Amino acid sequence: MAHPEEVFRVLLRVETHPGKQDDFERTWLEIGNAVTGDPANLGQWLLRSTDEDHVYYIISDWTDEAGFRTFEHSAEHVTHRERLHPYRSGGSMATMRIVRHLPSARAAA
């Protein structure tokens, strides 16, 4: 496993069409292995905003930026996006590197 400070993180903000949230969640779960099956992927999370019912955040961690960029331009990723596209009305992407990681006291014990 990559050291936390070496992880490349991607944060997606996804806006869904009103009433399409259940379809979006189901499809995301059905095709999730398109991401998690990639050797450079360390896992991903789907989060739903508590402020905006139609907004989701997807966090995915990668061994490095090169591994993510290879996946980003792959046929698997294009298929993944095409399956989710009917439920999306907009969104954005931010990429980042973890600078420091402080585990919780409970996790350190």
Layout of helices and strands:
Elements: E1 8-16, H1 21-30, H2 33-36, E2 41-48, E3 55-62, H3 65-72, H4 75-84, E4 88-97, H5 105-108
Antiparallel strand pairs: 1-3, 1-4, 2-3
Pfam families: ABM (PF03992)
Domain ABM: 8-96
Organism: Streptomyces olivoverticillatus
Residues in helices, as a percent range = 25-40%
From the N-terminal CA to the C-terminal CA, the straight-line distance is 20 Å
How much of the sequence lies in strands comes to 25-35%
What is the CATH C-level name? Alpha Beta
Structural class: alpha+beta
| CATH T-level topology | Alpha-Beta Plaits
The geometry reads as: globular
Mean pLDDT over the residues? 92
Number of strands: 4
Number of domains: 1
Main sheet record:
4 strands, antiparallel
Element string (H = helix, E = strand): EHHEEHHEH
**Largest beta sheet: what is the strand line-up?**
2-3-1-4
Low-confidence stretches: none
CATH architecture term? 2-Layer Sandwich
Organism: Streptomyces olivoverticillatus
InterPro entries: ABM_dom (IPR007138), Dimeric_a/b-barrel (IPR011008)
Protein name: Heme-degrading monooxygenase HmoA
Keywords: Monooxygenase, Oxidoreductase
Overall description:
A 4-stranded antiparallel sheet has the order 2-3-1-4. 11% of the residues are buried. The chain has one domain (4-94): Alpha-Beta Plaits (2-Layer Sandwich), CATH 3.30.70.100. The model has no long low-confidence stretch (mean pLDDT 92). Strand 2 (41-48) and strand 3 (55-62) form a beta hairpin. It is built from 5 helices and 4 strands; from the N terminus they run βααββααβα. It has helices spanning 21-30, 33-36, 65-72, 75-84, 105-108, and strands at 8-16, 41-48, 55-62, 88-97.
